[in-house]
Design goal:
The protein is α/β, with parallel strands linked by helices and about 240 residues long. The chain has a single domain, classed as Alpha-Beta Barrel (TIM Barrel). The chain is built from 9 helices and 11 strands. The strands form 3 sheets. Strands 1, 2, 3, 4, 5, 8 and 11 form a 7-stranded mixed beta sheet that branches. Strand 6 and strand 7 form a beta hairpin. Helix 1 crosses helix 2. It is globular and about 50 Å long. The structure holds zinc ion (2 copies). One zinc ion (ZN) binds next to loops.
Amino acid sequence: MNITDNGIALYYDFHIHTCLSPCGSDEMTPQMIVDCAIAKELDCIAITDHNICGNCLAAMKYAEDKDLIVLPGMELQTSEEIHVICLFPTIDNALKFESFVKSELPPIKNNIRYFGNQTCIRPDGTTYEEEQMLAISSGIPLYGLYPLVCSYGGIAIPAHIDRTSFSIGSVLGVLDKDMGFPLVEVWKDPSLAVSAGIPYIQSSDAHNIDAFFDREYHSFTAQDKSVNGIFTALKNMHA
Ligand SMILES: [Zn+2]
Ligand SMILES: [Zn+2]
């Protein structure tokens, strides 16, 4: 955390998968992620599993007495197979949105042998296997998603827009302000965001610890290191 003329530079990673994502490594427990974020000297992180918020509370509780803000989040898969990071200020906001998303997922059970296990860890450390298939598109479309997530108190950020799959770039091939997103996430190449005049952030999309540490540091400027400061900064970023 560095203090600048305009506020505080916050080092962040708002796209991290836990062992609850079928593609997430078993080592990615909520507690391990918090410990690694502190070791990396980040100020704020978000837990963003596919279509679910089940491991957010364990990470938030574990970070309560630590100098790290953990936002509850989710990587939603829209009906067009586009990934969108959804971040929320509180676990209540996140879980309300999650129950809506659950109602929009096809009722198919996860095939562990094909996709991998989906381990949910409660704050007390006990675990269970999430049966709903999470690596699947919801029935929620991209258009209208930003105001929808805002109505749950959150912010929606299209994920890795420059990737060759599950992205605005790969599915639609275009990005413009009419899609309604004031902010996007870029994996490596920001040209699509730059040409659309939309500001962008960059996170690790880590599914294992090595990828989490391999990703370079990124920061943005906020008025203060708080949940409110983070959301105000994200919603008012300039290209
Ligand atoms: Zn993704
Ligand atoms: Zn992801």
